[in-house]
Structures are given as C-alpha cells and as structure tokens.
User: Fold Isoaspartyl peptidase/L-asparaginase from Acipenser oxyrinchus oxyrinchus.
Amino acid sequence: MLPVIVVHGGAGWIGKERAEGSCRGVQEAVLAGYRILQRGGSALDAVEEAVVAMEDNPMYNAGCGSVLNELGGVEMDAIIMDGKTLASGAVSAVKGIANPIKLSRLVMEKTEHLCLTAEGASRFAKAMGVPEVEEESLKTDYSRKRWVENLAPGSNPVESQMGKMGTVGAVAIDSQGNVASATSTGGMLNKMVGRVGDTPCVGCGAYADNLFGAVSPTGHGEAIMKVTLSRLILFHMEQGMSPEKAADTALEYMKTRVRGIGGVVVVNSSGDWAARFTSDQMAWAAVKNDQLHYGLYKGESFTLPVTST
Assistant:
C-alpha cells in the first residue's frame, strides 16, 4: 500500500493577511506526518504528528492559536481514532494543555474510556505526567483581538465569526493498510463556557475504519453533530462512492438539511483521497507517491515533488 496523508487547517474565511501562513502550515504539517509514513510508521503516529504541528502553529484554531470563550478563556477539544481496532480517545473542554491530541491518544491507550472532559481530563493529564502550560501561552494577539471585537456593541456578526471554523485535522493510510484520523480545535469563537462541539464525538469529529477509510471534518460543530458527518461520509463510501463523491454528498446534505457549512479530508481503504468543502476556503494539503498537493480555494490544487519542499 502506498502511504497517504491528508490534512486540513480549518474551513471558513481566513483573510489575505493569514492565507499564506495557513497554506504553509498545512504543508509543513502534512510533511511531518508523511515522514513517519515514509519510514514505515503507522497511520496513527502520522496523524498525531501532523495535528501536533498545527496545534503548535498559532495560525490555527487549535492548541496555541485557539479562539477564546465568552469569558476570554481557552477550552479545547480533540480526538484520535485507530481504524484497525476502532479504538478512540478524546478530550473536551481541556485547559492548560499544549497538545490536546497527545492527551487524546493517552485516553485511548491508557484508559477504558473514549472521552474525558474538563477537570477529569486535567486530573488524568497530571497522572500521566503531561506538563501543564500557562493559559496565556495559548492565547495570541489575534485571538484576543477577535474576542474583544465580538463583544463590542454593534459588532458585525459576520465579520466577528470570520475564521471561527479553524479546527485542524488529518487522515492517513500506512503501508500496512491501516487508517487513522485525528482532529483538534479551540472550538467556536466566544462560545459558552463548557460548550463541547463535534470534535471529541466519535462519528462526528472523526471516524476511521480499515474496512472503508477515515474522515476528519471542520466547520460548524453543532451542524456536524446533527448529521454525524464523519460516519455519514463513510456510510456513503460503504455504498461504493469515491471519497470525493461521498464528501460532496454528505456536505451538501448538511448544508441543505441543517444549513451547516464545513469541509472534510478523506482517505479510503484503497488510498484514494479527497479534500472538499462548502465554505469559502479551507487550507489543505496531501501527500501521495512523493507528490505534495495543496490548496485554499475551491477548485484550487497545486502540486510539488516532496523532495523540493
């Protein structure tokens, strides 16, 4: 099996001043994951590494670039799923953790649970020796600016939500034919304290099954949950649809049924992949057969040999 990895940096509107950085970041993330696959590593390790790269990049709404909740705090969600065993681990509303995706994997491998939340997740992180970080280190000038603007009387509700769908994610298939999915987010801009979105919910924020493939979505979390978007896409693939057709069909259903906008990256059990979205933009990148593909706008796809990046 030729290894494949696809990542996204979030659906929404990015803005000219951040577009270049967002596109560069997904390329760096996908190459970080691909290097693991090149060495014969697992899809699970590859998607985790790719998501860590984006959590560590302040360009994205995850990890150190997370948006702020209504009180100006950071609460993050993440999930990882192994298509070989259907094992999954997730965390929700966690604070003071630099890489929630790493904590999610510990939940998967070190507990009998699928998801830990808030204080419980923090207690588990301490027990596992995961270092705490100061909450202020996870905030950027950009996230603070958007938080303040969204609170201001008379603020434009469209402008204040621009870029809020900044969830990051990755899917991969390794040389053994195993698939995996990982997703991480700071959630919705100015969300209520304690709000949990689609990301840590199996079948919504991620799904991976060796029989059919893997999905990582981004977009309006409540809409994604209403249609269980990730599992819906795999259902269409079970019925024989290609990753692209399955993604388009499910995204259109979410748009017409619950007026939800978003995007997905998908890989099937044969190594075919897709990056599709109904939002104005979604930074994405993929590597297959030592060719790097990336784009930002609909219908846009650039290709580079991996050796030149």
Summary: The two ends are 23 Å apart (CA to CA). DSSP finds nine helices and 13 strands in the chain. The longest strand covers residues 4-12.
